[in-house]
Each structure stands twice: as structure tokens, then as C-alpha cells.
Specification:
By secondary structure, the protein is α+β, with helices and mostly antiparallel strands. It is about 40% helix and about 30% strand.
Length: about 100
């Protein structure tokens, strides 16, 4: 079985994460592997929203199309913090990708 690519799309807010994930799955043959949060210890004192990482899986071309659609959708809601595609994650990278802060 071929190894799947992973797309990492970090957005501002949970609503933007759901909108981005929905748009991504409708645009290409990908699955949402996880939503993960990135909240620093002093986040309540900061004037920024909670950051959510959307992890997408599929072929490289599908992940590329999905990331474009997800980014466009998230920008319409609140914005994108960062994005990256890993075409063939290493075994050790795969271990790190399984770590989630949302239970």
C-alpha cells in the first residue's frame, strides 16, 4: 500500500477548522485525520483566537487540491496561520503526527 501524504493546515478558531475541513473533503479525495489545538499557557491573556491544526490524508495531488480549498474557506472565516504538505512522512514523523491535544 502506498504511503499517504499529509496536509497540515493551521487556522484561527474551531469554526474555521470545521469549514476548512469540510471544503477540503469536498474538493478532493482526502480524509480528516484529526483536529488538534495549539493553545499556549497564557492564551487567555492574549488577544488572539485559539489556533486549530487540521490534518488531512490522501494522495499528494488530492492533498494539494484539498489544502487550496481549505485555505480559501478558512480565509473567508478568520484566517490561516500556517500550511504545509509532507508527501511521504518518515516513520518517526508519523509517530509525531499521532500526537493530539484534542481528546
Amino acid at each position: 500500500m502506498a504511503q499517504e501524504a499529509v496536509g497540515l493546515l493551521e487556522v484561527y478558531g474551531l469554526v474555521a477548522a470545521f469549514v476548512a475541513g469540510d471544503a477540503a473533503c469536498k474538493a478532493a479525495n482526502v480524509t480528516i485525520e484529526a483536529f488538534d489545538r495549539n493553545k499556549p499557557a497564557n492564551a487567555d491573556a492574549l488577544p488572539v483566537p485559539l489556533c486549530i491544526l487540521v490534518k488531512l490524508r490522501g494522495s499528494v495531488s488530492d492533498v494539494e487540491m484539498a489544502m487550496e480549498a481549505g485555505e480559501k474557506a478558512a480565509m473567508a472565516v478568520s484566517g490561516v496561520v500556517a500550511k504545509h504538505i509532507i508527501a511521504r512522512p518518515d516513520v518517526d514523523t508519523e509517530k509525531m503526527l499521532r500526537i493530539n491535544a484534542i481528546g
